[in-house]
Amino acid sequence: MSEKNELKKTAFYDLHVEHGAKMVGFGGYSMPLHYEMGIKQEHLYCRETVGLFDVSHMGQAELIADDYETAARALEKIIPGDVLNLKPERLRYSCLLNEKGGIEDDLMVTHRVQEDGSHIVGLVVNAGRKSHDYAYISAYLPDDVDFKILDDRSLLALQGPDAEKIMAVWCGEAVGMPYMSEIETSFFDVPCRVSRCGYTGEDGFELSLLNDDASRVAKMLMSHPDVELIGLGARDSLRLEAGFCLYGHDIDTTTSPIEADLSWIMNKRRRQEGGFLGDTVILDQVANGPSKRRVGLLPDGPAAPAREGAKLFNEQNQEIGVVTSGGFGPTIGGPVAMGYVTLPHDKLGTQIFVEVRGRKSLWRVTDLPFTPYRTYNAKRPTQH
Amino acid sequence: MTKTYYSPSHEYVSVDGGIATIGITTYAQSQLGDIVFVELPETGRGFKRGDEAAVVESVKAASEVYTPVTGETTEMNEELVANPGLANDDPENSGWFFKQTIINEDELTKLMDRAQYDAFVKENR
Known about the structure:
By secondary structure, chain A is α+β, with helices and mostly antiparallel strands. Chain A is 21% helix and 32% strand.
């Protein structure tokens, strides 16, 4: 059973190695941390132009029933978002919950319209939680809902202001797609499921492809002179600047969506009706406020980057929280962090003292994201 | 006449007139990636050989810089504090970290010369 501990390879492994990637283990896969450009330049390049990410380590799955409503209602028992009224070909960010209102994983939920016209629920979950989630979700599904793991599929993310321009070369149908939508289309001659979403705060697309077609599509994209491969290092700093949570760090089984400042994932109907795991805890937090909340933190002047685990103090030198993600934000050009603080220290502008290597520096609670979202809005005239 | 020595933890010590200039090697910076922050010791601090004297942070992580010789700091590189990228661009010249006295010259003999260090890097890569 020696194979059990070996890292899995995605369909793009050879491509990573060819492009000089430094490979590391992540979520059970051998993944590129960075390429020759380095994390900082990859980050900046993605914000300025366009970057290609291999995100095939993430888990793609589907809930299939006789109709969409049956599958949607089943999922609504374990997530607090509105799946039932999600329009066809639209996706939504949500959290998989436990009985205590903690987050078992965060995920993307899609109202998928299959080629045969049937409507199902699509999911994308985190790599490191894949096998856990599959067992967890399956255990909660009624007999009339099937759970299908799409392990024959790879996933690419194309992110950055030029993403649509690049898609236009091979996939005209992607042009003008609304943000958070999905279509079944072709990338040149390859069947491809394209969604307009991402984890960088920039405009972008995700391409779900059959494993056998994956490297051909990647090679087509890489043949464009403006497309550069981006590794996990820049993926992390990009998402941090965009204020997005990283599972296992900013959110976990002990934090609720309310504490994580993700209460927007629940609409009015779900708040009123409840009917999901952990609803008692979560709806109590909605009504009465949580005891701690995730906030953005920026230093008041030059400061050492605060990393995960750095302790947070108030003006009276009482420990009031901890950093859950932090580092240097290349676009910000300085340290950025997010973490949890006890209330009322979550108010914007609150002075927070961050301890790094025994020294405290003054930071402030800041609005997230650190860098403005530049995601695509279909209502806005397209810029050409 | 400057003579430069290298430690197994990838610091260099350039000795000139009894003062050691300490920084991280070209190989070390290439492993760290983009350096975004340095924390340097104040002047007058005493260190024993192997003490943690400075911190260097790259986009990836924070790493300690150890002084390979016992002594007292005499100067820190203010320019590096303002522009940490110097440690990437010119690590063994303008990207130096701090200067210090050398209390025990014998400690230098425990360090590597350039040829030994190059071989050490090659072996450990």
